[in-house]
Amino acid sequence: MELRIGSPATGDNYYPRPALIGKLLRALERDNVAFLGPRRTGKTSCLEQIRAQPGPFVPVLLNLEKHDTVEAWLSAMLAELRRVLDQPKTWKAELADKTKSLLAGIQKIDLPGVGGIEMASSPGKAQWRKPAEEFLALLACSDVPLLFLLDEFPTFLKLVAKHRSRDEVEAVLNWFRAARNELKEKRVRFLVTGSIGLKGVVRNLGLAPSINEFDAHEIPPLSDEEALGLLATLAKDNAIPLDASGRKKILRLLGANWPILLQLFISEIQEGEFKKPPTPAQLEAIYRDRLVAGSRNQYCDGMFDRLKDAFTEAERRLAREILKSVCRSPDGLGREEFDQLHQKLEPVLSQTASGMEELDHVLDTLKHDGYLLQESIGPRRTRFGSNILRDFWLRKTA
To answer: Which single residue of 128, 147, 207, 231 could bond 202 by disulfide (Cβ 3.0 to 4.6 Å)?
Structure first.
């Protein structure tokens, strides 16, 4: 297994998560799924694994963060579906004729842009509506078990709102919801992912009810057993000296078992050119000087900067104050303390219903995005979701 710091881990470089993949496939047999979590926590790698082992489905994977119009999305979805169906592979006998029929129907849809040229569009005119309805009718008549894996769906919605309008987002979300409803008894499923909160994006556009029927699943960190296994595999395959006690020490230092952080820690040990397993003190120095304060830690840098992608200016100011306060509190903060912080920042707004909703939204987003973690029992205080994010945020706000 090779070290992967930037690009998604796929193929032999993907550390298997059979329990998570099995859970998602079972959920998809029942309903459409929203698979959410912070950026660089392994969602895309999971989608690649599902595409490689899709169970009963024919998978169609799309990265939507490069599209900023509905026409471009539909064009890419049709082109990729056509490519998948037209692959030189042997379909199961019971699917062969159905696949040919679906492929023939796709070829008849008049949709400029399939083949790489984005469809022309006019402001205020939804040129995508007719081909979208034709596509929906085709899916409704087909018995091919299709699974559309739509990566970075919330980012796509933000781009459409920016380059077109809020009304365009509302129109496509309403169409997409109607399509899911019409296809609910068919063998067609949609899995959408997002590294910015899907609920937050549609909430800011006043469109939350349009996505509330997705079966939501958040990507969890690796279990300790999985994380220790990944560290052992990476160390062995890359000839890096690391003993069992060192692997456990790394987990305690990081405080969250995200694959990207484990890979990053191993790569820093590799850069140190150790001839024997590093001592606990040496691992602490790597953590402090190379991960928390080092320039290669793009995960923490990204988490520090990305609040602008998730919040409005006022929400972002509140989020920064919350994170700045929590990282300095060894015991975390409770709801009353969050209310006091909000009141100090927004003395008038915090006393209104919309102000309370703002605080709830910011806290929920920070928890969803992996910054914060709330205790499930006891006083239910809220702390940072990982040691490394806490220490990085403390250093950046010192």
So the answer is: 207
